[in-house]
């Protein structure tokens, strides 16, 4: 005999679950309004990056000399540049380039930092000493200067820009992971894992790394804004994303000096979107820090 299902009770339970989730979201928005604003800004920019092909009203690479330096209008909301290309379409595609490079560089730098931090924290001795001295050398150089040097050596391309920015983010990530590894490796559950015969690399991945996720998430989110800003700076200087990719920094570079008086919209819109990306990621990172750090939750 098939069991009877109380559909009314199931619907009531589902409704209670939805209301519970909504109440938690509303609580988080009230508790961290700036963090919610940052999350909203980043969500919109990521949405633009993912669905750029659908949202672009015109071909961002197509030139129309008759529309050169056209002012913002109902047909071209953000105007057109010196080659008659639609600025709004280039801004939307630029979101894919700038956000994609920033996220990729931040994740790659985090991966490098995890490898360096876990290796140095668990092995110690000469290996740890060498890794820390290299990290200190890299950290002593300003991030933008280091990225410029790496980009100049590697050459302008999307992958080289990602790699150059990732290297600037690696030392801080590595030091955070190493500090957490040194604090965790002497705890009883790590000693118990060693006594059970687990290898060091397995202990690091299975037990140490999951316990460093909270500071890692916060630092990764906070570094995203810096990575986007460095990418814009490199592209502005001609060392980052090459043509014809419409990076926000590249858009500023091609119009900053010549058209600042005659077509200010060529500078305003890319600058606003760069500022929004940095502002949103910083707000989100600060909110995540407060949420994940028990010492700050009551503040």
From TrEMBL:
Keywords: Cell membrane, Membrane, Transmembrane, Transmembrane helix, Transport. Its main location: membrane. It is found in: Cell membrane. Residues 95-285 form the ABC transmembrane type-1 domain. The keyword Protease does not apply. GO terms for cellular component: plasma membrane. PROSITE patterns: ABC_TM1 (PS50928). GO terms for biological process: transmembrane transport. The chain crosses the membrane at residues 32-55, 99-124, 144-168, 208-230, 267-288. SUPFAM superfamilies: MetI-like (SSF161098). Pfam families: BPD_transp_1. It is a multi-pass membrane protein. Belongs to the binding-protein-dependent transport system permease family. This is ABC transporter permease.
């Amino acid at each position: 005999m098939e069991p009877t299902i109380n559909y009314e009770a199931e619907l009531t339970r589902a409704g209670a679950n939805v209301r519970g989730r909504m109440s938690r979201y509303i609580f988080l928005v009230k508790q961290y309004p700036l963090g919610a604003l940052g999350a909203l800004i980043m969500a919109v920019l990521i949405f633009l990056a993912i669905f750029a092909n659908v949202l672009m009203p015109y071909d961002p690479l197509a030139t129309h000399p008759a529309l050169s330096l056209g002012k913002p209008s109902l047909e071209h909301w953000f105007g057109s540049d010196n080659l008659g290309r639609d600025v709004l379409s280039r801004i939307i595609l630029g979101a894919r380039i700038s956000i994609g490079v920033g996220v990729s560089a931040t994740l790659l730098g985090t991966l490098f930092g995890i490898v360096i931090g876990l290796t140095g924290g668990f092995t110690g001795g000469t290996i740890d000493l060498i890794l820390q001295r290299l990290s200190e050398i890299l950290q002593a150089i300003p991030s933008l200067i280091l990225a410029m040097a790496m980009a100049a050596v590697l050459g302008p391309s999307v992958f080289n820009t990602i790699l150059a920015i990732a290297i600037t983010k690696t030392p801080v990530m590595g030091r955070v992971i190493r500090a957490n590894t040194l604090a965790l490796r002497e705890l009883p559950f790590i000693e118990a894992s060693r006594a059970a015969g687990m290898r060091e690399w397995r202990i690091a991945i299975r037990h140490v790394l999951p316990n460093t996720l909270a500071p890692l998430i916060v630092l990764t989110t906070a570094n995203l804004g810096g990575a986007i800003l460095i990418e814009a700076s490199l592209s502005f200087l001609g060392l980052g994303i090459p043509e014809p990719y419409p990076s926000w920094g590249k858009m500023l570079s091609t119009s900053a000096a010549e058209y600042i008086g005659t077509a200010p919209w060529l500078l305003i819109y890319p600058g606003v979107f760069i500022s929004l990306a940095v502002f949103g990621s910083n707000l989100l990172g600060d909110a995540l820090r407060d949420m994940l750090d028990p010492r700050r939750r009551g503040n």
